[in-house]
Amino acid sequence: MSLGRGNPAKRVFLASVICIILALSMVVAGCAPAPAPKVTDNKSAQSNAFPVMPGIPRFRVATTTSLYDTGLWNYLQPMFEKKANVKLDIFYAGTGVALQYGQRGDVDAVVVHDPAAEAKFISDGYGINKRSFAFNHFLIAGPADDPVGIKGLPPDQAFKKIYDAGKADPTKVKFVSRGDNSGTQAKEKLIWQAAGFKYPDIEKAGAWYEETGQGMGPCLMMADQQGGYLLVDISTFMAYKGKIKIVSLVDQGDLFLNVYDAIAINPEKVTTVKMLPTANAFINWLMSDEVQNLISTYGVAEYGKPLFSSLKGGACTEAGCPKVEDYTTPIQ
Amino acid sequence: MQELWEGLVQAVQLILSFDPEVIEISLRSLYVSAAAILIAALICIPIAGLIHFNDFRAKRVLINVIQTFYSLPTVVVGLFVFLFISRSGPLGGFQLMFTPGAIIIGQVILILPILTGMTISALSGVDRAIKDTALSMGASGGQAIWTIITEARFAVVGAVILGFGRAISEVGAAMMLGGNIRGFTRVLTTAISLETQKGELVLALALGIILIGIAMIVNVIVNILLQRY
Hints:
The structure holds two protein chains of two kinds.
Chain A: H1 8-31, E1 58-63, H2 65-69, H3 72-84, E2 87-92, H4 95-104, E3 109-112, H5 115-123, E4 127-142, H6 155-168, E5 175-177, H7 183-194, H8 199-203, E6 209-211, H9 216-226, E7 229-233, H10 234-239, E8 247-250, E9 257-265, H11 276-287, H12 289-295, H13 300-303, E10 309-310, H14 324-328
Parallel strand pairs in A: 1-2, 1-3, 5-6, 5-7
Antiparallel strand pairs in A: 3-9, 4-7, 4-8, 4-9, 4-10
Chain B: H1 2-17, H2 20-53, H3 59-68, H4 74-85, H5 100-124, H6 128-136, H7 141-169, H8 172-178, H9 188-197, H10 201-228
Helix pairs in contact in B: 1-10, 2-5, 2-7, 3-5, 4-5, 4-8, 5-7, 5-8, 6-7, 7-10, 9-10
């Protein structure tokens, strides 16, 4: 009997068994100390023997990277979990991606900062119960010696100067753009527009304009490494102090206001979303005195002033600030 | 240089301090990738045996295709699986998105080609003379195959270790499918990515050193077991 013929099933079975035993021994050896994931709450109807499957309802929020990179969510997350008795899963993603997760039903709520995209998200029926809960400002950061000379200029003029300098010598000037459909990039586009440019022209403007497709933190690090300029929110910028050498050059301008909104996903439109009551409780909690007070003190110990500003008590007075009812009216 | 040294020092400190979060992340990495390699092994090794021990027309082509998929990018796997298991995807009802299970699925798909291909290579690597000798000494077909497998076991385990290495070191699928949720789907690679992003370069480096340490321990244990049996 040759090996080429005969009973293939039997051969393969034999061949498999020993290999699997070998593989198993390795896995067992490697895996022995690994405990099954903790199941802290078992309210859900579904029970699952396979520990990697979701057995408990998890409340999911996609949040903008600035709120994550500054550590604010790490701080708020356990508090909400305790209060609402749920597991809170936080994803960091740019506003564009966060809204897409919402649209697909992969999250129950989003925390974002791009007013135009939010308005569309809501008018398309995906989002409901939008409330604002914090704000800060953008700034333009760049190398301390400021080779382009934008210090103290209005944001649109600063952008214009960077553009001209980049066009003149793309090797000397860099502008680092998020390039990821985030709220920050939406703001950047608005400023280019205010400076009289069409954004597609900026994208093609040359090697000085770098679209990274990454979060706020990585962009800061890249701009720092290259001695480049970038638009950044002040909270992330402050949180990276000591890790970067670039400095704030332009921090005054009407366009710089940045408001953070929480939006629940509409279960009538996105039928796979099941946790609207928790989403509403979450948004109400963000507006509560408890959280508002925390936001207005978060970071003071480390940075000397708060990283974000709470909206409580009408703290936001500039043009473009949300209406009082948008950050005080609880969702019923 | 300074940062590298600090990374090493901090890695040692992190390990010695038994930081609960670091332990949890490390164990999750190990658990997810071990589950992935186990499932992949259960699928791949029989398939590899089927392909190796049978002759058919498209065998060479099939092996070439399998080998091509060695270079499957992790983010493509992530994207592919994402489209399936996202709540609005065809498998959305299982609610797998952003769970450790999702990462395991991604990693299984990622290592399927490598493990299958390398197992075929391992079996092919056994000298034909060994099989002939076994047969000439009166072994049955099954016994001859057993002999081949016994001879090939080091190479097969090598393939398994390689697959495990690819699984535990990949970041694309883990980030995309797990979402790097603290305390739920955060594994070593996604934690390293996050800490790098936050500018905590020394901590990121320390986590990287821990990952290498885990790989080393797994390797050593497997090799000890292999020598013994």
